[in-house]
Amino acid sequence: MSVISGKAYWAHVVVPNTRWNSDGVWSIDVYDMDEKSLATLKEDGLILKNKGDVRGDFIHLKSNVRNENSGQLNKAPDLLDAQKRPMLDTDIRVGHGSTVNVRYKPYTWDNQFGKGRGAELKATQVVELILFERDNDDEDFEVVADGYSADNTDEDISLAS
Asked: What pLDDT digit, counting tens, does each position of 65-76 carry?
């Protein structure tokens, strides 16, 4: 297993991301890494990505919630604070720019799309937490008193014919 240090982006380390996989995937992008971390990635044969955004060069680490071969549930990656204590509060979201140490296990993959190296997320240690907060875009709206209400579930909703 290997450990790298850097900044977190798109950290799905508390609640798995189900956008592309209905079972869910724990994942994190790590960017702004020190030279030691970059050397570790190179030793493990991992290739950095760069999408031309604020992350610059980054590595994507992930772990599926369910084992693709057996169908069994995988153990969730550990989430620790700076003192190596488990972070059990599921309301905490690790936000963009949080400083993290990440442990992963490199692996080789080979499928119909080709072959390569990947990294299975095993644990994340949060050194400096920046809480992830959703934009409250709904603050731009005003209440429309006579408009549709989701609380009116017993009303008939007419459908266009």
From this structure: 988 778 888 899
Residue 43, SS3 per DSSP:
helix
Which residues partner with 136 through β-bridges?
none
Confidence of residue 106 (pLDDT cuts 50, 70, 90): very high
pTM (2 d.p.): 0.77
- What are the tens digits of pLDDT across the range 125-145? 999 998 877 655 566 778 888
For 93-154, the three-class secondary structure string (H helix, E strand, C coil) is: CECCCCEEEEEEEEEEEEECCEEEEEEEEEEEEEEECCECCCCCHHHHCCCCCCCCCCCCCC
The DSSP H or E segment spanning 21 is none
Report the relative pairing of strands 114-128 and 99-111 from DSSP bridges.
Answer: antiparallel
d(CA 17, CA 125): 19
**Whole-number average pLDDT of the chain:** 87
Q: Which amino acid is at 61?
A: L
Query: Could you tell me how far CA 57 lies from the centroid of its own chain?
Result: 17
Question: Side-chain half-sphere of 23: how many Cα atoms within 13 Å?
Answer: 11
Spatial neighbors of 79 by CB under 8 A, at least 6 apart, are: 13, 14, 86, 87, 123, 124, 126
